[in-house]
Amino acid sequence: MTPANMEKRIVRYGDLVPCKTAFIDAHTPGSDQKENFTIIGGGVSESPDQHVHIRETPGFNIGAAGQPPKCRNSLHSHRTAEVFFVHKGRWRFFWGRYGTAGEVTLEEGDIFNIPTGIFRGFENIGTDYGMIMAILGGDDAGGGVVWAPQVIQDASEHGLVLGEDGKLYDTRKGQKLPAGVSPMPLLTEQQLANYPEVPVEEVVPAYVGRYNDLMALAANNPAKVIGEHGLLRDRPGFEVELITPTSLDEHRHSSDRHHVLMVHEGHWALSWDNGEKTLAPGDTCAIPPNLAYSLASSMTGTASLFRVINTDDAAGPTATELN
What we know:
This protein has helices at residues 3-7, 149-156, 189-192, 200-207, 211-217, and strands spanning 10-11, 35-40, 52-54, 60-67, 72-77, 82-88, 91-95, 102-106, 111-114, 120-124, 130-137, 146-147, 160-162, 168-170, 208-209, 223-227, 232-233, 238-243, 259-265, 268-272, 275-279, 284-287, 293-297, 304-310. A hairpin with a 5-residue loop joins strand 13 (160-162) and strand 14 (168-170). The protein has 323 residues and is mostly beta strands.
């Protein structure tokens, strides 16, 4: 692979293209300053304005959400994995039918494998613009987002209607649902009964990884963060590792799996037979199968990156039997 071809597989943090109309709450006060990014795969955006950086999917999608202070993402659910790690800022994650079942605060480097089948939202509670990076299970990311009924109702009061076709229509711009397309129906009370109110003491120990703990685990070998034998035990169709300079060896690594590198801290030298590239904080790199590569930190300070690897497990509900 030539350096030019590898560069096409790297999405630089400074080149990320935001979409401010990605979801149904784009006009709802308190959520109308969100920026959504689709890095690898089509993600779950409901807007045709969403820019996709790399369309090829390795069995999962990579995205990001950027929000100013006090901006929140409305309550929704996913049918496959939704994993976040905090790249910048301080964030409050909350869950439940009305967001009151539990909450947890995440700092930079912390990771949250949010269980499927519960409504969840998140809010930037820091003092600066914050960024969280996301991994979504499946090539089609579970087929989209399931919104809490009040989110759809609130959005309609501010001009946005979600059609059954999964697309947004902005009545402020004179848009109407096409003939034969009905509004997305609200979940019934019977359906809502299938979305549990999971207490915080069940969620945090099994699904939240603190950065300091991950760094300690990665002192000598890559830390298994998410996986069948990971710190956060799950089989979502991918595994997540944390890599630090001290957890690397000098040998080139090759695998028949897709590897996606997501840099959190430091600058990293990525090398292979035909070239070398430098990865900076916030960069995402898609390594194709069977390409032998090596990594080395080019800094003396703290450096870390998350490596996501596809598995043979089907994307689907959280594997609660492992916890």
